[in-house]
Records
---
Amino acid sequence: MKKWFWWGGLLAIATTTTIFFYSYTNNFLGNWYSSLLASQLTVNNTPEIVQKPILKRKLKTPETITAPKVNTHQLIAHIKALNFERYEDISRSQTREYIINNLKKSGWSPTLQTFDFGVNVVAEKPGSNPEAGTILLAAHYDTVIGSPGADDNASGVATVLEVARLLSKFPTARTLKIAFFDLEEKGLLGSSAFANQTENLSNLQGAIVLDMVGFACHTPGCQQYPPGLPITPPSDKGDFLAVIGDAESPQLLAAFNNKNSPNLPPVITLPVPFKGVATPDLLRSDHAPFWLRGIGAVLITDTANFRSPHYHKPTDKPDTIDQEFFTGVAQIVANATATLLN
């Protein structure tokens, strides 16, 4: 009896120590991540991020829903209409006007959310069940200086506009909120300002962020990868769509499962542990401020400079967009958004 009592005591002590260490490590890494990301954003002139309680939300594993078919002509028309540098105030204002006019044509009522450095465009379509929460679909609309940004990020803007058109009359249980972020290229300023407003995060169940979704390369060796990825690189060709999400939100990643859609581009989902602290290359877009807030978010991307030779260059023009790949990606996003909304 004494022997079993002794071993039982050791087991209890070991278990308690393990639980304490796991809890302490999680809290430490979470706080360290928040400080790290906040300091990175502050260096990039992002408005001060006010710490708020981390809210835990759970989505059920979704059943795939097929959205209405996207229109390739409409998608490319958006990219061509935005074929200019969107860096200065006047060009970004012109872009906002284009976005607002197209949203109104699709039956939306967009509003402007201003912050110290720019303006976000936001619109919302209520769902049938107010208690079901909200899904956000977003893309940034600015560019770096000297680039017309066909892929970065007219492709994202065009996809959000097309999904907004398709789902404007599509019945959904959840509310669909769409946002076009300003000044991503200057340090995630628009998305940080958006995520810093409590009302924007009210009952938000998840965010889908698009950043460069129109470029594909089919030559072996054309696809590169950042160091420290938690998975083995799937291919040396850039013909897939990457969906990057925090490991705590598997349901968001699962919505992009397109194994039963062989005619669409393959999707590689990447669950990122510890909010990406070990892979800073995965924190370079507008999903990062939502991770900081404890909101599940996925980044949808063609992997940017790890694939495209036109990244942040004057050559990022409409004729470099792979129309078949881009159309397929837009359909994947439409299907996933419709799935999460229901």
---
Amino acid sequence: MAKQGGGGKRPPGMTDVARAAGVSAQTVSRVLSGHPNVREQTRAEVLAAVSRLGYRRNNAARMLSSGRSRTIGVVTLRTTFYSRAAVMSGIEDAARSAGYAVSTATADSLDTFAIESALSRLIDQGVEGIVLAVPLINGSTRLEELTRATPTLTIDGSRTDATEVVAVDQSLTARLATRHLLDLGHETVWHLAGPAEWLEAASRRDGWRTTLESAGRAVPPPLEGDWSAASGYRAGLVLGRIPEVTAVFVAGDEMAFGVVRALRELGRRVPEDISVVGVDDIELAEYCAPPLTTVAQPFAQMGELAVAHLLRCVAAPETVPEPASVEPRLVVRASTAAPPGTREAPGRRETSGRRETPGTSVASGAPVASGAPVASGAVTSRDA
């Protein structure tokens, strides 16, 4: 290997990898960029040579020569909630598969200045596009300018004039949960909402309210939490002391865990006395006691769609792709049942500690054959 001045070894370059693998430097570049039109054997030989030589790409030099960073930025909110981490994982996996790196800028709050600062940091790094993964409600002139300067996509329902959207239908999320509880025979459904400044919380609250109104049911006053289990626990202590409460739709699984604990401490059994439905289907939901009925949010799919949508905007900035919507799915477990003092709801059966509601799609009301796969936006039942 060639020597540098002072006797030190120079790091291996792309030509060294090409020579070791018996291919051209262009082929090495295509492999490392994740290009699909490379034979698997060639890809394996190149990657083996990269590993053997300890080759690392010089991204700064690559950006200078190509004028492209092959990096996408993500603005996210500082939080420990599972849903944020799950979406980020989907974005990173999809970006890596497309040959892109991911740079993250964290905002400490939903204040527009904090979001603007995070966007500016990413633009200064030369990212090719940005995923805005914050539930932004209030925009600003500066925010509009920043999102016009760089292709930007949002995944939490927020939108500026210059952004594209990949979102879960949160109104459908609420309808699935509320309709499920009404179909079990509950007279009405109480609601523990997320923070008012979050768009997804507002959409779920609206979907819950309109479902009750459409069914001619009373709409109880909603409670509000902050997505944490502690806020769910505090709300549960309130709900558990209201005798007429038999069903609760909770806007997030972590809050639902707190609700279930509070109800248990008050001697209100789940689901015998009060049924509880959450949102997200995080990994712990099936291990709740009892396993939690919840509306699954397709976090990985959201991340994948966001990257694919954004890269289309990067490749053809003049085009305007249609907003993409991802449907949620109701997962029925053991935390919901018919209200106390009533017979088991028709069409329900107990199976291995879980409940299934065969025969009807909540989203459309269309018949579904028992045991057949059910599309997104429909009731499904599973242990995992």
---
Amino acid sequence: MIDIVDLKLVPWGNTKLQPDNTFKCQHGKAECFLDIVEACAIDAWPDLNEHFPFIYCVESLVYHKNYTQWETCFEKLNLKKKLVTDCVLSGRGKELELQYAAETNALQPPHKYVPWVVVDGQPLYDDYMDFISFICKAYKGTAPVPSCSSSINVVKIGRKFNPFCLKQTAMSKLSTIFKNGMIDFVDLKLVPWGNTKIQPNNTFKCQHGPAECFLDTVEACALDVWPNLNEHFPFIHCVESWIYHKNYTQWETCFEKLNLNKKLVTDCVGSERGKELELRHAAETPPHKFVPWVVVDGQPLYTDYMEFISYICKAYKGTTPIPGCSSSDSLSFTSKLSTISSTITSFVEQRVKLAASA
């Protein structure tokens, strides 16, 4: 498909240009530094077949929080390191980033979050993962595009039983606050509603179809029959894990796995109680732009939702140390080119409110 696409990567994101012409990146100095690395790679190797594998390699390491290992991508891809490092150390890197800042700021409509994907000038908003179907629809050529005939069908059918991967990723990370003891300082509230809409006849229209509606009701009933977080969270995590692997019919195995009374939930789902609970969750869901929508002490995290642990640490006003804060709320980033560190804030005793709508 790349043969019919002009792909342009813009390593700027939500970075802000300060009055003194320095950069303030959403995720700190590490992001600023690696954005410059990627800008220099695009400049040094204009050929997409060269710079894309390098950027993909760097981003893969960042995803796994291996911020200092980006230089291994040169050897892995047999690329000349000096071209990029010379650019980073000189004023060229900053010059390139200023160009990307101008391009990003010129977007119409302006971008709201990242990743911000645009096809033929049309932003995809939270449909960015379906960019292949948008490319196929935008293509005006006559030569068949091999992946289009199947990709559009995959999107149309697949969205009905979407794996909700972002939701499951967030749920998996939420489980860490149970393991490290942070949950003792957090009031966690799960809201299984997401982007569902109430229709004029009082039925629900879910973003990903009837399967999502049904399983949201299952989760709402689980919250109701087991108000204890230590009971309903493992069950919902189990259900979401099945969904992530596209095993939509296996959710009932979670009862046996966790030694929970199945009848309590199935009776709720089969009665009007399930719908009543979902209407409550609809009323509780705040105005939001996408899901998962994570809120810490009333403050939405937007695209930073995966960093909720650091926001909890910053919001905590207690004096008792919170397990996990000393490491999660700081970042140490070291390389031959840059050394970056951040400080830890002090804490005061107070539970932090954490709400996740998905």
---
Amino acid sequence: MRELPKFNKANLSVEQLTIEISNWLLENDTEDLPEAIEFALASFMPYIASQRMSLVRLTEDSRFEGALTVAAPGYNRVSLPAQGIYSPYLEQISKGELIIAEGNIDQILNTDEVLLAEMQGIIAHIMVPFRVRGKIWGGIAASRYVGSIHWREDTIHRVRSFGQILASTYERYAYWEKLQQKNQQLELLSRHLMDNQENERRMLSRELHDNFSQRMALLTIKASSLSNTLIVDSEKQSAHELHDEIQGLAKDMQALSRSLHPAILEDLGLFTALKSECRRLSTIKDIDIQTLFDPLPALNKELSLNLYRILQETLNNVAKHAQASAVFVSLQYSDTDLHFQIIDDGIGCDLNLNQNNGSIGLISIRERAQLFNGSAVFSSPEDGGFIVDIMIPAIKEYYE
């Protein structure tokens, strides 16, 4: 939360306070708004000579949704009821009816409600309902334990105006909170889909290795035996070619099995796995690949696997689209973050990928980075080339 301003009732009118508070609330980070609203309520209390205030939010069916409440030193805050509760008091608010008690709190609350809200000893109470976007949003309440039992008309007007400012601020926070929840759900879904994808890859890799690779080995032996039994040179040559094709297919199948489930990552570690993937592309496409890796603390398996998949996806894109002759891969570590960068000297890309979603492969790279609270930035300089820039914060749980 931004630094708390200091308000002095002696040299600041209630109108000036409202403007100052409104501007200050706009400057606060969204996640800090509940605490900021409570500070605003506490700052406003002396201006209306109250000892307790609450901002109350109702659901569309007139039930209690939530509240922010403050009290002056020496007094207790309102005891909040359970979410979803219904009462005659709340029904009055939902109808937009001003609720005023001057001297006798039993005029507006029954005994149960007084006990529930811990309102014993209050000599004056007001609840001012107001609308947001044309609907009753809730209300702002103020209570006095000492002082005048009467509420002036200008005080009621000021309380309503102040409440509307706070309600708009709270709506901003509520919208942000819902967005955060949806983002968390999407992140969980993305993580779940990637986990399932890895499980399927692992199963397919095992099937290729345990079943099809063995069968391919048997075919290779049979093809070799066949060539040895033939006498005619042309037939013998054809058998040799068949044997070579089967061997090539077996090697391709082994490479596919390794790419689906990189056992090298678990056996020899991240650096070796990354360099192996670089050598694979260098061999296939005759691309010069240079690597620069800082010493790293041991990363957990999930982060290691996702860094490997990011490199794998990026190098596949280079092989398919970049027409590159060289690639530079760096992995740098500091106390604050892990910086993973892949640069090629290919033809680049015309898309503004920082503003557009880009290809499915780039979306996958971005999602993998976001799983670890990181970021993925894609850029293509005017003179060609393409840069994948990954930043992962150095959070302790990402390391073993």
